[in-house]
């Protein structure tokens, strides 16, 4: 074991650069408190340091063998990613089931499912990403891999999973990759996220049926439901609450009114109808 034979106590902090990169240097400041105070008898310092292994000093600096700067941060990031990639462990109400769908901007998608008889609750949020507890801005940055989704809670006695799948396919274009209308980005991708083997089977069979009816390849992903991060409150039931222009849109069961993401005006342009 390498040992320090002698070392005078520094009068001021030492600065060590752990990286020699010309573009980036990680700086560590070693304050005198890391070292034994200089004794009146110099030989005493020498004896003290002879008994102190180099690994001990490095350990105090976070530079011990098997360690590197940022290791703790990396570990925390890996842990957060593990949580984000884990299953959705929320529990639906008794007798109810969950389903998750991504079909573009979640404002309009949520209203579609709100109107379906047998659906008792809807929430918009983020899933399938790598970061824990993302914000809307994080997701929009395109760096988290999250998808904007609607989590639907439904009573299977009143509404079948196939009914939800039919609404999903009718709502969007499943052949456009990472895009719905003017909304572009990985967060707008088409996806069905299943909770049970039965849901997976139904989703895949439904996709195959839809593909037979289209001459373009469907890009919808069918994956297990992962951790659901509820979006900020102002996104919840956005259109039912009035959207950006204060025009409240009906959530009545069975309602077939056109869904307008940005409000309704007498001279509303065509793109204002079903645009998100």
Automatic annotation (TrEMBL):
EC number: 1.8.4.11
Record flagged with keyword Oxidoreductase: yes
Class in the EC hierarchy, top level: oxidoreductase
Gene Ontology biological process terms in this record: cellular response to oxidative stress
Residue ranges of domain Peptide methionine sulphoxide reductase MsrA in the record: 99-241
Cellular component GO terms, alphabetical: cytoplasm
Catalytic activity, as annotated: L-methionyl-[protein] + [thioredoxin]-disulfide + H2O = L-methionyl-(S)-S-oxide-[protein] + [thioredoxin]-dithiol; [thioredoxin]-disulfide + L-methionine + H2O = L-methionine (S)-S-oxide + [thioredoxin]-dithiol
Gene Ontology MF annotations: peptide-methionine (S)-S-oxide reductase activity
Keywords from the named record: Oxidoreductase
Keyword Oxidoreductase assigned: yes
Family: Belongs to the MsrA Met sulfoxide reductase family.
PANTHER family xrefs: MITOCHONDRIAL PEPTIDE METHIONINE SULFOXIDE REDUCTASE
Protein name stated in the entry: peptide-methionine (S)-S-oxide reductase
């Amino acid at each position: 074991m390498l040992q320090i034979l002698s070392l005078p106590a520094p009068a001021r902090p030492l600065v060590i650069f752990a990286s020699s990169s010309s573009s980036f240097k990680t700086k560590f400041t070693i304050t005198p408190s890391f070292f034994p105070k200089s004794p009146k008898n110099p030989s005493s310092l020498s004896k003290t340091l002879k008994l102190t292994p180099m690994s001990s000093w490095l350990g105090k600096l976070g530079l011990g063998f098997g360690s590197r700067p940022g290791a703790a941060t990396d570990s925390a990031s890996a842990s957060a990613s593990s949580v984000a990639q884990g299953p959705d462990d929320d529990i639906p109400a008794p007798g109810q089931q969950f389903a998750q769908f991504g079909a573009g901007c979640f404002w309009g998608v949520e209203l579609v499912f709100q109107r379906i008889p047998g659906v008792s609750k809807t929430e918009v949020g983020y899933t399938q990403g790598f970061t824990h507890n993302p914000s809307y801005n994080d997701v929009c940055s395109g760096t988290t891999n999250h998808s904007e989704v609607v989590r639907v809670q439904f009573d299977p006695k009143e509404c079948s999973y196939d009914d939800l799948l039919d609404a999903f396919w009718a709502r969007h274009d499943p052949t456009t990759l990472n895009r719905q209308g003017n909304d572009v980005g990985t967060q707008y991708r088409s996806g069905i996220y299943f909770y049970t083997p039965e849901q997976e089977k139904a989703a895949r069979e439904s996709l195959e049926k839809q593909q037979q009816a289209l001459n373009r390849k469907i890009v919808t992903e069918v994956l297990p439901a992962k951790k659901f991060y509820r979006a900020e409150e102002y996104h919840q039931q956005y259109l039912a609450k009035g959207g950006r222009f204060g025009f409240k849109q009906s959530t009545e069961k069975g309602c077939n009114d056109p869904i307008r993401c940005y409000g309704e005006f007498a001279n509303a342009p065509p793109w204002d109808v079903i645009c998100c």
